[in-house]
Amino acid sequence: MAFILCQIARFALRWRDQFAREQRRDGPMAGRKRIVGALLIPGAVLVAAQHPLLCQHVPSLISAGFVFLFAVDALDGSHSTTRAYWPGKTFAPYAKELTQAMLVLHLTYILLNETMIKAVSLEGWMVYYAFLPIVHHVILTAVFRAVFWLTPEPGERQR
Predict the structure, then answer these.
(1) Helices (DSSP H) in 27-94: which residue ranges?
(2) Judging by beta carbons within 10 Å of its beta carbon (0-12, 13-18, 19+), is residue 53 exposed, middle or buried?
(3) Which of 37, 48, 81, 128 has the lowest tally of Cβ within 10 angstroms?
C-alpha cells in the first residue's frame, strides 16, 4: 500500500506541473489530453500492486520510457524532450549534451533498479525506493554541473 501511495503522489506532482506547462504552451485542450495518461498510469500501478514483485519493476519501466524518448531525440537531433523539460536560454546551448546525459542516466537507473531487485529483499528494495527521489536529485544536479563544466561554451565549439 505504501508503494501505491508513493507512486500516486509522485505522478500527481509531476502531472500537475505538466498540465500547467502544456496549457500555457498549447492551450486548454493539451492539458485535457494528458488527463487520460494521468488516470491510466496510477490505475496500472493499482493493478500491478496485486503482485508486489511486479511493483519493483515499475521504476525500470518508467526509466525505459525515458530512455526511449531521449534515444529518439538523440537520433533525430531535435532534442525536443530536453528543450521541453528545461526551456530557456541557459539550457538551450547544451540540449545535445543534456539529451545524451539523460539517456545514460535513465539507462543507469534501469541497471540500478534491476540490481537492487536481485540483490536485496523486498523490504530492502522499499528502503531503496523511498530514498530514490533524493538520490535522483543529487545525481541530476551532478549531471547538470558536469555537462555545464565539461561542455565548451557555444561560441567556442568546433564544428
Answers:
(1) 28-48, 52-55, 58-76, 80-85
(2) exposed
(3) 37
Same domain for 144 and 90, yes or no, is yes
Question: What is the average pLDDT score of the chain?
Answer: 81
What distance in Å separates the CA atoms of residue 67 and residue 64, rounded to the nearest whole number?
5
- For residues 57 and 117, the answer to whether their CB atoms sit within 8 Å is yes
R_g over Cα of the chain: 17
Q: Are residues 89 and 111 in the same domain?
A: yes
Closest CA to 3 of 35, 50, 40, 39: 50
10 band by pLDDT with thresholds 50, 70 and 90 = low
Same domain as 120, residue 66: yes
Q: Which domain holds residue 131?
A: 56-159
Is the domain of 19 the same as that of 85?
A: no
Cβ atoms of 71 and 110 closer than 8 Å? no
Which pTM value belongs to this model?
A: 0.70
pLDDT at 31 over 60: no
Ramachandran class of 154: left when φ > 0, alpha when ψ lies in -120 to 50, beta otherwise: alpha
pLDDT value at 26 more than 80:
no
Count the domains in the chain: 2
